What we know:
Elements: H1 8-11, H2 16-28, H3 31-37, H4 42-56, E1 61-64, E2 67-70, H5 72-99, E3 105-110, H6 112-116, H7 118-129, E4 134-139, H8 142-150, E5 156-159, E6 170-185, H9 198-202, E7 206-208, H10 214-225, E8 234-236, H11 240-249, E9 253-257, H12 258-264, E10 270-273, E11 279-289, H13 296-312
Parallel strand pairs: 3-4, 3-5, 7-8, 7-9
Antiparallel strand pairs: 1-2, 5-11, 6-9, 6-10, 6-11
Helix pairs in contact: 2-3, 2-5, 3-4, 7-13
Amino acid sequence: MGILGESWFLDVRLKLRHFQLFLALEEQRNLHRAADQLNMSQPAASKLLSDLEANLGIRLFDRHPRGLTPNWYGEIMIRHAHSMLSALHHTGEELNALGQGSAGTVAVGTVMAPAVTLLTSAIERVHRDRPGLKISVDVDVSKVLVPRLLEGELDFAITRIPAGVDAERFVFEEIGEEELCFVCRQGHPLAGKQPLSLADMAGYPWSLQPPGALMRQRVDSLFLHHQVTPPRQIVDTADLLLSLALVDKSDTITVTTREAADLLCPPQRFHLLPFSETLSVQPYGLVSLRHQRLSPGAAALMSTLREIIAQSG
Length: 313
């Protein structure tokens, strides 16, 4: 293929229908089923794809007897098809909201600690000036939030940029670290033990974020550093409420942020285990796509977040 110019999508006659076909092929991996999904005939779908490939001068999908598989070029087109169609979906939501007298919509993702204090304060403040603004918040780990940001499902996120992701695609505004703490129930056998060692805690069941999550990596490295065998019984879950329910009903220990513990762990039911080291994970921040302009509602929420961060700094 040659070098694509700035208006390459016009030169190759790229259409919205191509994006829809890419996603159908990603799901179905079969041209006939993808055509049915889009209410097209198979010949029409085949011509749509082959004409685009001919205009681009490259194959996007590898053909084999059982169907089609996207190659590297196809994977690029599929990834951006997700972003384009998601952007169009959000455009429709904003147009509808404006037509109905609303102030628009915002979809934001966040890791746990900022959701507890920072984001809740910002939402309360921005709703004073924009009471009609519809805000959706997803709380998850960074490795889930960042791909959703790239696919256009989120306007921005309060998170970290995971290792292996091209950081140049983002604007990252650092906020701070998350302090971690160990939580057990009141009445736990370790609740009154001092001094408390990691080996003492390792003998009990734990509930932790799944392997690969940043908080889990910090805990795993802690056991490795102290040369302590990790707990044999671990429930893997990203749901803090489930972890706290296990802690409340058993001798399970969990790890969460200090801010989350202060809000969700009343002292009459939970106990924060003392530990000689201060635990924290790498800084999180406001993360947005470098070349994407925020909607007015998203820009207002982000501006409010910046104000609160500056005031607390």
